[in-house]
């Protein structure tokens, strides 16, 4: 099924028309745009629904009645008290979409966007499919999340093209921002707490609120299936709770169908780029506050290149679920009764969520800059900061990589009319915050040092370089999904030194398994992924594929080396942390001490020259590794409390390390699919 | 899906008592619904009219029908698909005869026939594919003989002979099946004998002290009602098909009548059943109104669809004819409100018979500022003593008002009831002009009614589109029966098949998909049409594997030789 979607997605690439929506704004009145006649066709002519009506429907729902009663019995509170609590939750959550505010936002955003971006490209075909889709079924807009800018861009585009404005699931911190929170609310945002945990009432209110929106269909629902803004610009493992809430009305027959629209938002340059690296290095993210945002107004002075908003082909949930979900399972229990999802439903929800992430990846646009970042990171950090890379060589290699990316089916944002050399020069210019060119060589730009009394310590030096490297890594990550499957295969070929297809497949699966928090793979599709890797790598001349054999092609050296090098920082980081784990003195460690301990461990190794990647310093990588070893059963959680503690099985860690370094062959590791809801 | 208006005091149409066994064939269509003399047609001016004298609608011209017909289906009076005129006897395969059986049967003196026309007439029910094939003059496997028992003992003899000679028996009542129940299994190689119960049509006694009547099972609904009325009684069981369907058929399919809110469904109405099976006669020893004697054996018989034996005699509850009867109707702004109101009414009172439907435009078009595309009509019937009827009527209208319903008069109510019976005739009109369709039903909990209606209607529309139907189909529904815990929902589905090479196949695929959708939305496999052969494939998931085993073991014990070999249900 995945493959079918991929093929059709590629087909429509041929005649896609992208329009720069800023172009018109630059030539006509912003006010005129803000006050344009807005008359979208909603789903089945569903009447508009005020925020008050929506809340009332939710509060009066049978589901909430059940849950309130249940909680009242459990806690000894009166039903009315629980109901009041529910009302408070709902007030905190509720959107209050008003067209007037959309107009105001429209006006403001036009001003801001024109300043920030050269162009904002939107695919017209996707928009017209969306326009049709909103009339046929409730629509769920599912963008990826790489920047705060994502937040209102979709509403802005839909407003411009007469499509109903969505209500948007947002994190509660945004609601806390003075004025801005209220503006967002009135622009259709509803707010969800971050750590809901086992708060039954909150879950009930939230899920009923979401389901009611889907059921009524008066507006599309927009949410980020990745749950968070990705600090690494890489896709995140999709969150399943919200996805399940959204799909439930279909499972339960409350709507005929639901349409999912994956949306890929790609940036040449992300507004938050310098924040990203610092967050990953443990400088905590500033709490969202209005003044913080205003301080960020420095950001407005800069140019951020182009942005692509690619509306994917609408996907019918009904079609996706055919043969996967037996809707009769809801026949014997009242549908309003709180009921945990069956294993079948969990698997299906997880599959759909992963599929959407994959579709987002396939719809996203790769900039020349991201390709260059891939290449930068294959050079030693010292070479980048001290000697620099020869410009000529970088140009040639980037053009080579462009060809490879295209043959792997990537969508590139590569201005066609401009000579390649100019494209690359302007790319460097756009990213002068990270890189600079001097006398035919390109250097990594380290951040200005704050004035200090004492000289920079060695550790500070590492951190400085790490900040720059991680920023580069984030941009590299934008294109990782294009290369990841062939890269896993190339790595399998190099590490196992095997030519047997079945052995390579086992190792390929092992890599997918161990890296399943780093790269998003659709559960249960390993053999398709493997086939795809074989096909792509064969097509580009990297390998020869026989019935039983896979061998390195003679001319395959360059491709294979590039792909292995692409994955190397990940492998190195994982190995380092494996060493950390089995060199631990105790068998138990707490979550709190894990990150700083790993960081200092890795820093030492970088200083001693034993570790070549700075990516091991990223807290994101560290957390992913912790999840991986837990998934593989090498580390177990002991206590769930404020101080999560873990127990290490050093033998198991050692074994994983040995498999990863090719010392022992992997068994078919069977881990339970990650289908938490 | 037939008539209901036969309780009209004036007796607008009369059922002639069938003395000769083939008389029924002479007054009824062999390849369509109902009486030969009654049908819709477009006259020379292009206006629709209903012929004959039997119904209130007979002789009336309905100018709005043509426009509705053309605009709903994109049909045109220029594009005709007439049926082949006469039954084609040469298309019928010669009978497979078990000579020894025929000889023994002759000696009993029970009338029988091997005439092709008699056999074809009893080889089908009224499913679309059955009627469509007949109109094209196509005939498949048909019974090899027809036999007319005239009482219980005749049936006992026939079943004994069938067992002795290993002959397949298929009981035949009114022939109004819509589940392929009467279709002869094509793989059947034995002689198939159609046991036509039409001559077993007497009321054997009426017990006025206990208000029961003992009736032969071949009696047809309207005849039963007419004869009881003569004595001042009624059963109150009025399925849409009651002009033609038989008491035995009702028992064998678990029939339901329009007035079941007042009188009950067939299972509530029967007090005693007598059935002849290959193992002998099954019946209870007394007529106690309720018993605790293990599982009720009546429930092995009710819904057995002719797979276990022939129902020969039934004792039924009767009631004095109602003193007063009043139709009524309520118009709601939309279907949702109409359904909500019916649900509320069911909670409060069971004194009316009613249903809610979305009217087609030839029926009610405008009503007091309601959106004609959304409005919904509920038709009502009140029965009882005058005072109470009026009291109930007021109560019902008061409740309806809470749901935005406005009383729309007796006339509309009566017309609504009339519509139920003409629909079956309408299908024949459609088939003259490239339009085929059918209705099918389900039962579903209240909270699912609106969801199932929306989803099934939508599924039908999308399936039609996917299968290349060139014109938008008619896909509509109504709530016909209400219960405390749910309702019976009817779907109407018809489309213009111009441009399709195998329209019946397309129809069947869409109906199949619609049934899947019904089941996925918590609807039942059938409320009262039964399973027959049409819906057999879903039986296991409907009643569970163990349930199937139970039913099978009953069949295996009662009829080990599969004498009653119509292969329905299991």
TrEMBL record, chain B:
Pathway: Glycerolipid metabolism; ether lipid biosynthesis; Lipid metabolism. The active site is at residue 490. Its main location: membrane. It comes from the Eukaryota. Residues 139-321 form the FAD-binding PCMH-type domain. GO terms for biological process: ether lipid biosynthetic process. Transmembrane segments: none annotated. InterPro entries: Alkyl-DHAP_Synthase, FAD-bd_oxidored_4_C, FAD-bd_PCMH, FAD-bd_PCMH-like_sf, FAD-bd_PCMH_sub1, FAD-bd_PCMH_sub2, FAD-linked_Oxase-like_C, Oxid_FAD_bind_N. Its EC number is 2.5.1.26. It holds the Pfam family FAD_binding_4. GO terms for cellular component: peroxisomal membrane. GO terms for molecular function: alkylglycerone-phosphate synthase activity; FAD binding. It is found in: Peroxisome membrane. Its cofactor is FAD. Substrate binds at residue 427. Belongs to the FAD-binding oxidoreductase/transferase type 4 family. Catalyzes the exchange of the acyl chain in acyl-dihydroxyacetonephosphate (acyl-DHAP) for a long chain fatty alcohol, yielding the first ether linked intermediate, i.e. alkyl-dihydroxyacetonephosphate (alkyl-DHAP), in the pathway of ether lipid biosynthesis. Homodimer. This is Alkylglycerone-phosphate synthase. It comes from Sphaeramia orbicularis.
């Amino acid at each position: 099924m995945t493959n079918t979607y991929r093929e059709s997605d590629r087909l429509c690439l041929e005649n896609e028309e992208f329009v720069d929506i800023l172009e018109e704004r630059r030539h006509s009145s912003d006010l005129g745009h803000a006050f344009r006649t807005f008359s979208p066709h909603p789903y089945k002519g569903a009447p508009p629904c005020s925020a008050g009506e929506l809340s009332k429907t939710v509060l009066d729902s049978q589901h909430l009645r059940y849950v309130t009663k249940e909680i009242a019995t459990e806690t000894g509170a009166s039903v009315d008290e629980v109901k009041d609590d529910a009302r408070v939750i709902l007030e905190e959550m509720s959107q209050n979409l008003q067209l007037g505010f959309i107009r105001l936002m429209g006006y403001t955003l036009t001003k801001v966007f024109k300043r920030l971006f050269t162009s904002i490209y939107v695919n017209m075909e996707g928009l017209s499919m969306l326009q049709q889709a909103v009339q046929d079924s409730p629509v769920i807009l599912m963008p990826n999340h790489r920047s705060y800018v994502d937040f209102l861009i979709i509403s802005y585009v839909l407003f411009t093209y007469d499509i109903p404005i969505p209500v948007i699931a947002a994190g509660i911190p945004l609601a806390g921002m003075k004025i801005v929170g209220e503006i967002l609310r009135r622009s259709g945002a509803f707010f969800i707490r971050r750590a809901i945990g086992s708060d039954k009432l909150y879950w009930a209110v939230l899920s009923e609120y979401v389901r009611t929106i889907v059921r009524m269909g008066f507006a599309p629902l927009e949410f980020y299936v990745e749950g968070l803004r990705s600090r690494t610009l890489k896709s995140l493992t999709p969150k399943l709770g919200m996805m399940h809430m959204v799909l439930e009305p279909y499972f339960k027959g409350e709507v005929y169908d639901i349409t999912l629209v994956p949306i890929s938002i790609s940036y040449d340059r992300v507004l938050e780029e310098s924040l990203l690296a610092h967050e990953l290095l443990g400088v905590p993210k500033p709490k969202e506050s209005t003044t913080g945002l205003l301080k960020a107004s420095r950001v407005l002075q800069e140019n951020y290149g182009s942005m692509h908003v690619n509306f994917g082909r609408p996907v019918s949930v009904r079609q996706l679920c055919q043969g996967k979900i037996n809707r009769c399972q809801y026949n014997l229990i009242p549908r309003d009764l709180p009921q945990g999802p069956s294993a079948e439903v969990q698997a299906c929800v997880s599959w759909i969520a992963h599929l959407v992430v994959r579709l987002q990846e396939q719809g996203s646009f790769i900039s020349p800059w991201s390709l260059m970042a891939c290449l930068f990171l294959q050079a030693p950090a010292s070479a980048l900061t001290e000697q620099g890379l020869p410009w000529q060589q970088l140009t040639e290699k980037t053009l080579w990589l462009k060809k490879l990316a295209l043959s792997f089916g990537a969508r590139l944002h590569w201005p066609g009319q401009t000579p390649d050399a100019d494209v690359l020069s302007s790319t460097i210019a756009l990213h002068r915050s990270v890189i600079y060119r001097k006398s035919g060589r390109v250097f990594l730009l380290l951040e200005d040092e704050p004035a200090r009394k004492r000289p920079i310590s060695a550790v500070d030096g590492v951190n400085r370089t790490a900040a720059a490297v991680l920023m580069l890594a984030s941009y590299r990550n934008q294109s990782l999904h294009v290369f990841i499957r062939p890269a896993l295969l190339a790595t399998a070929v190099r590490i196992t030194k095997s030519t047997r297809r079945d052995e390579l497949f086992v190792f390929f699966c092992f890599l997918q398994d161990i890296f399943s928090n780093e790269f998003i793979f659709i559960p249960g599709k390993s053999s398709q992924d493997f086939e795809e890797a074989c096909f792509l790598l064969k097509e580009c001349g990297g390998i020869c594929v026989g019935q039983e054999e896979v061998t390195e092609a003679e001319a395959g050296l360059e491709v294979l080396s590039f792909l292995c090098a692409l994955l190397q920082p990940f492998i190195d980081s994982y190995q380092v942390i494996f060493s950390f784990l089995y060199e631990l003195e105790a068998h138990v460690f707490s979550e709190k001490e894990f990150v700083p301990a790993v960081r200092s461990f890795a820093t030492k190794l970088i200083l001693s020259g034993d570790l070549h990647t700075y990516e091991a310093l990223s807290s994101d990588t560290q957390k992913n590794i912790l999840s991986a070893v837990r998934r593989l059963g090498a580390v177990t959680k002991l206590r769930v409390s404020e101080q999560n503690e873990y127990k290490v099985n050093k033998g198991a860690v050692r074994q994983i390390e040995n498999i990863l370094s090719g010392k022992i062959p992997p068994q078919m590791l069977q881990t339970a699919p990650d289908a938490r809801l | 899906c037939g008539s209901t208006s036969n309780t009209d005091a004036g007796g607008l149409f009369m059922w002639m008592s069938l003395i000769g066994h083939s008389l029924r064939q002479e007054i009824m269509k062999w390849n369509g619904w109902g009486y030969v003399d009654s049908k819709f047609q477009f006259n020379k001016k292009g206006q629709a009219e209903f012929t004959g004298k039997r119904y209130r609608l007979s002789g009336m011209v309905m100018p709005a029908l043509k426009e509705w017909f053309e605009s709903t289906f994109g049909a045109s009076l220029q594009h005709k698909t007439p049926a082949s005129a006469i039954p084609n006897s040469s298309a019928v395969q010669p009978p497979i005869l078990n000579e020894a059986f025929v000889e023994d049967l002759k000696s009993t003196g029970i009338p029988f026939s091997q005439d092709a026309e008699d056999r074809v007439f009893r080889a089908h029910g009224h499913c679309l594919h059955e009627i469509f094939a007949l109109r094209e003059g196509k005939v498949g496997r048909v019974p090899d003989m027809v036999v007319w028992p005239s009482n219980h003992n005749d049936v006992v003899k026939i079943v004994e002979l069938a067992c002795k000679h290993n002959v397949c028996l298929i009981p035949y009542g009114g022939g109004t099946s819509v589940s392929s129940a009467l279709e002869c299994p094509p793989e059947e190689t034995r002689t198939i004998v159609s046991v036509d119960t039409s001559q077993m049509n007497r009321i054997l006694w009426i017990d006025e002290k206990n208000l029961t009547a003992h009736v032969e099972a071949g009696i047809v609904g309207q005849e039963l009602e007419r004869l009881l009325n003569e004595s001042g009684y009624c059963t109150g069981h009025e399925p849409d098909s009651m002009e033609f369907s038989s008491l035995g058929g009702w028992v064998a399919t678990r029939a339901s009548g329009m007035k079941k809110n007042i009188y009950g469904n067939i299972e509530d109405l029967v007090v005693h059943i007598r059935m002849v099976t290959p193992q002998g006669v099954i019946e209870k020893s007394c007529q106690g109104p309720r018993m605790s004697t293990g599982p009720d054996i009546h429930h092995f018989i009710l819904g057995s669809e002719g797979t276990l034996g022939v129902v020969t005699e039934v004792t039924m509850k009767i009631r004095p004819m109602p003193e007063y009867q009043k139709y009524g109707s309520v118009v709601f702004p939309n279907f949702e409100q109409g359904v909500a109101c019916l649900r509320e009414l069911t909670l409060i009172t069971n004194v009316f018979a009613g249903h809610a439907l979305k009217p087609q435009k030839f029926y009610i078009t405008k009503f007091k500022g309601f959106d004609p595309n959304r409005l919904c009509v509920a038709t009502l019937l009140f029965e009882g003593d005058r005072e109470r009827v009026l009291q109930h009527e007021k109560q019902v209208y008061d409740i309806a008002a809470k749901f935005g319903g406005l009383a729309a008069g007796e006339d509309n109510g009566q017309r609504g009831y009339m519509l139920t019976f003409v629909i079956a005739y309408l299908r024949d009109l459609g088939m003259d002009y490239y339009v085929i369709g059918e209705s099918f039903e389900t039962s579903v909990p209240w909270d699912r009614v609106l969801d199932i209606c929306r989803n099934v209607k939508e599924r039908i529309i999308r399936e039609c589109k996917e299968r290349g139907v060139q014109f938008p189909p008619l896909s509509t529904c109504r709530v016909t029966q209400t219960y405390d815990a749910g309702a019976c929902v009817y779907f109407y589905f018809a489309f213009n098949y111009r441009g399709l090479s195998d329209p019946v196949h397309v129809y069947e695929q869409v109906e199949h998909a619609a049934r899947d959708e019904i089941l996925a939305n918590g609807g039942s496999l059938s409320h009262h049409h039964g399973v027959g052969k049409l819906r057999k494939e879903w039986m296991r998931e409907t009643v569970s594997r163990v349930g199937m085993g139970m039913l099978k073991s009953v069949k295996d014990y009662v009829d080990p030789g599969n004498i009653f070999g119509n292969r329905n249900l299991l």
